Amino acid sequence: MQEENVRTYLEKKLDKKRIAHSVGTANVASTLADKHNADTQKAYLAGLLHDIAKGICGDELDRLLNTYGIVADDTEQQNPELLHGRLGAAMVRDELGIADEDILNAIRWHTTGRAGMSLLEKIIYLADLIEPTRNFEGICDIRALSEDDIDVAMCAALTQVMDFVRRKGFALHPNSLMAYNDCIKGGKTQFETPTQ
Ligand code: FE
Ligand code: FE
How confident is the prediction for the chain on average, in pLDDT? Predict the structure, then answer.
């Protein structure tokens, strides 16, 4: 996979702001992969491509979901935005020929998380949340935790996301709840907040 092909693909699909977010995610993902002994190239590529289907809506979304045989569940019907992970994975498989299941799953599950996430899935989930263009209360803690302990960071991140979803009045996807339950099963909720 030529990096140039991927760049051209990104430029065709995303606006400048989303490209900046994608490059930021790729850079952070690669750094985290290096720290936690994951594949840095896969992390970078998954980071670049994770939001490739973001912003697709209306008739175009319906057409593509139909093309790839993706059926929205109840929560996705309430909030179609959630579908960009599943759709993005199908698009990069079909349009870029990426067949690596680890990369495809990292793209697929970055919107909701799921129980039993792989290391790469966790890295992309976190990198998406903490890349440099992001800013929210508590981000410094999650950035520090991501370097330190991926599972503790995931727990903190999922808590943050669940709070956000609740405040906004959105429906929480069952997979996000299962990702959270999976985290706390590992006893990763009790952590010391790193000092800044
Ligand atoms: Fe996304
Ligand atoms: Fe993103």
Answer: 93
Side chain identity at 152, as an amino acid letter?
V
Percent of the chain at pLDDT > 70 equals 94
Per-residue pLDDT band for 191 (boundaries 50, 70, 90) equals low
Q: Is the dihedral of CA 120, 123, 128, 133 positive or negative?
A: negative
Radius of gyration of the chain (CA): 16
* Residue carrying the six token digits 């912003």: 55
Question: Closest-lying ligand to the alpha carbon of 85?
Answer: 1
The number of C-alpha atoms within 13 Å of 90 and in the hemisphere containing its C-beta is 16
Query: By the 8 A CB rule, do 126 and 157 touch?
Result: yes
Residue 177, pLDDT > 80, answer: yes
- Distance between CA atoms of 70 and 82, rounded to whole angstroms? 12
Q: What is the rounded distance in angstroms from the CA atom of residue 97 to the CA atom of residue 48?
A: 15
- Distance, CA 106 to ligand 1 centroid (Å)? 11
Domain 3-136 of CATH type 1.10.3210.10: yes
Residue 74 CA to residue 145 CA, distance in Å, equals: 33
Tokens 């989303």 belong to residue: 18
Question: What percentage of the chain has pLDDT greater than the value 90?
Answer: 88
Q: How far away, in angstroms, is 148 Cα from ligand 2 center?
A: 22
